């Protein structure tokens, strides 16, 4: 379920809310929940191309890979739940129906465009994303694949053996995220529930914020891909390269406390943040969601939420209590709130009426554009004016725009008094007419009277109560739905207190095929069982009217087409069910099986071998199954209302797990301000909740040094990270051996530099985090915690010690937090330091490790035993290494020469490097004269300045400025010039951003043919398949990589010898399951053709697998540099980079030992 623009709104209003994290920074969680449908959509049609075709096997593998990545990132300790959307409540089906009809229409339009260009489209090859609906053959196959995948992971991966794993599939009714919340409510009702459980929910819907908050669990975070707004924002193809954000609901709670802080002084009853949060959830419904339309004039981008919050602050003190009582609407209090909110209706209409009168006057003497007759009666323009007003962001026009359109005169005679005052009665009459027109035109009421309006009010209030019940208790009715595309005016939602308790009949969810027929468009009817397809298209079908060939959409005050209301007829359940009844007998046995609801499945590890688990298509069987399956039905986890537990549970502590940020510990005041804080790489559009630190006073360097130097503190408030202080400014300060402070004064240039550091920190806090920290007098430099490792004394005793970063980062003194105890996080910071661990626990028999002795550097070993004298006996598995001298020789022989633009231009016979740059870049041609969006690119596309990317083997950007070209690139350019001389000749004298096809080709008919010829040549040319990499990357040539692959796949070099050694424990490195910033050997340099071994366990790359570095993609952050490694054997989820098989994978330097470094 989604609330358009909600995520952006809260992220900009509360700037610290989300945290962009790398893998090693993600805190420890007990429970991980995946709302699976977002993952399914991303993996099946990642580019949102309606004509895209992805093989089914690839889709399943990508879904598995994504799940595995999420699990590896979070590594839940207790519970892992995957919830796929099942049959939804009837209230949701209206939105599902509109979305699927729009998807089919988009595909139809896209196909028409392709037909116009190339003349052919194969509908059989297209992946119809509408098949991601419960009951389809695709979803049934996916369900079987997911069950197999869970068994496979539990049986083969020790990390998956720790938590309980739940699969709620497409055959279990309910939306994925609400099935998750049902299960959380069930867990909270149990006597053994731990109130400080840490939850992580992955999903892409913005309203997961509301669901998480109404659980009232204190340690709840949302994991989602990093959001970047703006044009041409593309998602990385490799899930491991995606940046993730954690949205911390602990911070959201703090921000909401700030948002409504004035209530603490104005309420005549106790202030309760939990109940304020419940009312905040209720207010979010008024701007619309998947079940109910937004109220007229309430749009998020027009400040609706801000206005709702301010009104709440004003009205709550006179209500006598809170409105949302744990999912039950207090009608009397809500009616008072709505009566006050109705003033928005009046104000909105005043603006519209004022504009109408003004425009009527302005157009009364104005001629229509290209017309010779004056507009004597502008009343006929009212409807068009209203449409224009309603389609704008607010009820105001740009006068300049209307003048340019020919609507208005701009003479002095026009500037007369036009807004004559009216009586209140006249105003209300006009307002009543205005609303009556809305109801008749939008909602098709023949008559608008008090009885009709009262029914509308009751219907809307029922919708609000249904939503609250759905969020707080679970689905109250499977059959209820809001029967209109539009909501009533706020001023007409009144006199509803008399309704009393609003009850719903639970009923039964649709059967899967009933929902399919209810939501699918005719264009997707092949997804249905054949027995029902004719009901969508045959003239005699009793439900044919539910499937119009054409439909209209209505922006209804919105700005984007995807926000528009899809005006489809509502499905009538009884008629639909009756129409289907005669055809159930024609279903196949497999289809009858698919048309049933099913249970959830719980999987737990067992040491017992359960035998062979056969696999579905594409995958091998699990020979030794260790996953015990238990079936659980929805009714077993349904908690009666009287047993549900509300609010923060007893025993829950607002203390503070490491990795869960909080606004506590530093005093501040909060104030909303139009501060333009940059949250999504651009200034915010609305107000920001700015934090102003209190009590910031000047502190001498000596005081700061004595308090913090050589101490552990927390930096980065409110996203606190443990760090070790080493320096304070604006003078260098160190501690002498006796503990005294040594101060060395700075030179004038150094003083200026230090002052700039302080200013930059203040600016960063203000512009990026929305925190005003004041003047920075003292800057603390601290080394952040990057993990923990074991150190061994002479007796071989292991003691865990914190490991700090090698370089220090700067932090304003006023944001340093000390004297606070955060609960330790084993995953991020290694738990508590100074913990002694016996050697036999650290190095159990059979444990794999890696030897770091110089003569056996990086060799894989197995532990035999740990002695009480502080040594470890190991079995060394010393493998032979392949001879790659031929690869080194080819590297030298095939060294790729790159030429500056001027030299490359000369080699290609071009007169200037500018022309070369144009040919190798983008050449846009508008293919239809009246359609500015119909552009195709006939350039070579060898360089990407905007994304700072090169084409491997063809282009390189030197010094961040100049593009250089390889011999291969020169050859392609020469071919292009020879093949399409007309294009090159025209470019010699023209430099437009976008060309018309007639510019290059005289005949329009010939132009289309020629453009298609160019596009086909470009797509067929081998260079178009070359990989794009970040500028500054380095990669071996194809011939060298193929030589490496030939060497490692040949026979004769593989042999192994074993030996038994006794070593010191400090000479051993254990595998890592969770990535951190501790490198196996910080002194190692990593070069192309270096031999490496993977030390990550429970990873797509098997532990101990060896390979060669064939590519290096540099990053601004050196720690994030990626290394392309070609491994000795193909790997699941690997990729091809100049190789015949999928044996390549990308790792950071923390995940491997460089064997070549040990030999150097």
Automatic annotation (TrEMBL):
Protein name per UniProt: Uncharacterized protein
Keywords, ordered alphabetically: Exonuclease, Hydrolase, Nuclease
Gene3D superfamilies: 1.25.40.1050, 2.170.260.40, 2.30.30.750, 3.40.50.12390
UniProt domain Xrn1 N-terminal: residue ranges: 1-226
InterPro entries cross-referenced by the UniProt entry: 5_3_exoribonuclease, 5_3_exoribonuclease_1, SH3_12, XRN1_D1, XRN1_D1_sf, XRN1_D2_D3, Xrn1_helical, Xrn1_N
5'-3' exoribonuclease 1 D1 domain: residues covered: 656-821
Domain Exoribonuclease Xrn1 D2/D3 positions: 839-1049
BP-aspect Gene Ontology terms: nuclear-transcribed mRNA catabolic process; rRNA catabolic process
Organism: Rhodnius prolixus
Higher taxonomy: Eukaryota, Metazoa, Ecdysozoa, Arthropoda, Hexapoda
GO cellular component, one term: nucleus
């Amino acid at each position: 379920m989604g609330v358009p623009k909600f995520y952006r709104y809260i992220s900009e209003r509360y700037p610290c809310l989300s945290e962009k994290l790398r893998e090693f920074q993600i805190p420890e969680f007990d429970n991980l929940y995946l709302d699976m449908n977002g993952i399914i959509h991303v993996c099946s049609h990642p580019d949102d191309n309606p004509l895209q075709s992805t093989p089914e096997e690839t889709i399943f593998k990508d879904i598995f890979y994504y799940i595995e990545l999420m699990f590896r990132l979070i590594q839940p300790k207790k519970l892992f739940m995957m919830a796929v959307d099942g049959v939804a409540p009837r209230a949701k089906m209206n939105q599902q129906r509109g979305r699927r009809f729009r998807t089919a229409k988009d595909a139809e339009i896209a196909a028409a465009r392709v037909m116009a260009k190339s003349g052919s489209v194969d509908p059989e090859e297209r992946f119809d994303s509408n098949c991601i609906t419960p009951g389809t053959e695709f979803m049934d196959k996916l369900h079987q694949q997911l069950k197999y995948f869970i068994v496979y992971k539990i049986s083969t991966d020790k990390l998956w053996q720790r938590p309980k794993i739940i699969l709620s599939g497409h055959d279990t009714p309910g939306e994925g995220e609400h099935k998750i919340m049902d299960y959380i409510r069930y867990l909270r009702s149990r006597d053994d529930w731990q109130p400080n459980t840490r939850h992580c929910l992955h999903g892409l819907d913005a309203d997961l914020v509301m669901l998480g908050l109404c659980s009232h669990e204190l340690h709840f975070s949302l994991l989602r891909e990093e959001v970047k707004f703006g044009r041409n924002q593309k998602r990385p193809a490799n899930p491991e390269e995606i940046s993730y954000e954690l949205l911390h609901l602990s911070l959201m709670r703090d921000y909401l406390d700030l948002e409504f802080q004035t209530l603490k002084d104005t309420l005549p009853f106790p202030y309760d943040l939990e109940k304020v949060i419940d009312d905040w959830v209720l207010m979010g419904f008024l701007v619309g969601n998947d079940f109910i339309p937004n109220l007229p004039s309430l749009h998020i981008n027009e400040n609706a939420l801000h206005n709702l919050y301010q009104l709440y602050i004003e009205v709550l003190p006179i209500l006598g209590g809170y409105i949302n009582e744990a999912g039950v609407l207090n009608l009397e209090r809500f009616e008072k709130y709505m009566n006050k909110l109705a003033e928005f209706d009046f104000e909105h209409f005043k603006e519209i009426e004022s504009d109408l009168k003004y425009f009527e006057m302005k157009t009364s003497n104005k001629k229509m554009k290209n017309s010779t007759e004056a507009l004597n009666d502008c009343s006929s323009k009212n409807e068009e004016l209203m449409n224009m007003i309603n389609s704008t962001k607010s009820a105001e026009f740009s006068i300049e725009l209307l003048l340019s359109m020919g609507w208005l005169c701009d003479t002095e005679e026009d500037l007369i008094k036009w807004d004559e005052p009216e009586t209140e009665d006249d105003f209300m009459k006009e307002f009543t007419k205005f609303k009556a027109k809305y109801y008749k035109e939008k909602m098709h009421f023949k008559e608008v009277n008090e009885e009709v309006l009262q029914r509308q009010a009751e219907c809307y209030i029922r919708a609000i109560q249904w939503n609250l019940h759905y969020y707080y208790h679970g689905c109250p009715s499977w059959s209820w739905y809001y029967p209109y595309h539009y909501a009533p005016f706020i001023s007409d939602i009144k006199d509803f207190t008399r309704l009393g308790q609003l009850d719903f009949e639970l009923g039964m969810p649709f059967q899967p095929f009933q929902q399919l027929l209810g939501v699918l468009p005719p264009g997707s009817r092949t997804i249905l069982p054949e027995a029902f397809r004719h009901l969508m298209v045959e003239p005699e079908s009793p439900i044919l009217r539910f499937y119009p060939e054409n439909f209209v959409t209505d922006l209804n005050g919105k700005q984007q087409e995807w926000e528009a209301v899809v005006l489809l007829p509502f499905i009538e359940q009884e008629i639909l069910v009756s129409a289907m009844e005669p055809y159930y007998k024609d279903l196949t046995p497999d289809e009858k099986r698919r048309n049933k609801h099913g249970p959830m499945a719980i999987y737990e590890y067992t040491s017992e071998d359960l035998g062979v688990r056969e696999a579905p298509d594409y995958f091998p069987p699990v020979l030794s199954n260790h996953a015990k399956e238990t079936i659980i039905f929805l009714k077993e986890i349904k908690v009666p209302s009287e047993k549900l537990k509300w609010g923060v549970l007893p025993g829950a502590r607002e203390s503070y797990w490491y990795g869960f940020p909080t606004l506590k510990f530093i005093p501040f005041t909060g104030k909303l301000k139009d501060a333009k804080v940059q949250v999504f790489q651009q200034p915010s559009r609305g107000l920001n909740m700015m934090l102003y630190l209190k009590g910031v006073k000047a502190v001498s360097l000596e005081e700061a040094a004595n308090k913090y130097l050589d101490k552990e503190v927390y930096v980065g408030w409110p996203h606190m990270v443990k760090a070790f202080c080493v320096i304070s400014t604006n003078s260098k300060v160190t501690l002498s051996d006796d503990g005294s402070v040594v101060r060395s004064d700075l030179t004038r240039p150094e003083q200026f530099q230090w002052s700039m550091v302080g200013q930059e920190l203040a600016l960063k806090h203000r512009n990026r985090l929305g925190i005003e920290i004041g003047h920075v007098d003292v800057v603390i430099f601290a080394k952040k915690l990057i993990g923990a490792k074991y150190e061994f004394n002479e007796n071989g005793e292991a003691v865990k010690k914190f490991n700090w970063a090698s370089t220090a980062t700067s932090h304003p003194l006023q944001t340093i937090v000390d004297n606070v105890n955060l609960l330790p996080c084993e995953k991020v910071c290694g738990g508590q330091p100074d913990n002694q661990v016996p050697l036999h626990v650290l190095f159990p028999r059979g444990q794999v490790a890696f030897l770091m002795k110089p003569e056996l550097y990086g060799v894989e070993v197995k532990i035999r035993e740990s002695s009480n004298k502080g040594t470890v006996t190991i079995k060394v598995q010393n493998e032979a290494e392949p001879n790659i001298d031929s690869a080194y020789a080819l590297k030298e022989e095939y060294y790729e020469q790159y030429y500056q633009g001027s030299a490359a231009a000369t080699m290609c016979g071009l007169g200037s490097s500018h022309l070369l740059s144009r040919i190798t870049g983008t050449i846009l041609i508008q293919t239809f004269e009246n359609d500015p969006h119909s552009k195709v690119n006939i350039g070579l596309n060898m360089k990407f300045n905007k994304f700072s990317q090169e084409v491997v083997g063809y282009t390189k950007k030197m010094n961040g400025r100049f593009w250089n070209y390889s011999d291969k690139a020169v050859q392609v350019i020469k071919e292009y010039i020879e093949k399409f001389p007309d294009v090159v000749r025209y470019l010699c004298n023209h430099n437009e951003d976008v060309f018309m096809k007639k510019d290059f080709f005289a005949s329009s008919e010939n132009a289309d043919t020629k453009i298609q010829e160019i596009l086909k040549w470009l797509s067929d040319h081998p260079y178009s398949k070359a990989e794009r990499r970040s500028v500054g990357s380095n990669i071996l040539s194809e011939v060298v990589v193929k030589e490496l692959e030939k060497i490692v796949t040949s026979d004769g070099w593989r042999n192994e010898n074993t030996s038994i050694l006794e070593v010191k424990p400090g000479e051993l490195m254990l595998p890592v399951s969770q990535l951190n910033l501790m490198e196996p050997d910080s002194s190692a340099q990593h070069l192309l053709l270096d031999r490496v071994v993977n030390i990550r366990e429970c990873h797509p790359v098997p532990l101990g697998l060896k390979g060669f570095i064939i590519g290096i993609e540099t990053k601004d952050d050196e720690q994030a540099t990626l290394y392309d490694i070609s491994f000795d054997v193909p790997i699941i989820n690997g990729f091809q980079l100049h190789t015949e098989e999928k044996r390549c994978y990308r790792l950071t330097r923390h995940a491997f030992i460089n064997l070549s470094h040990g030999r150097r």
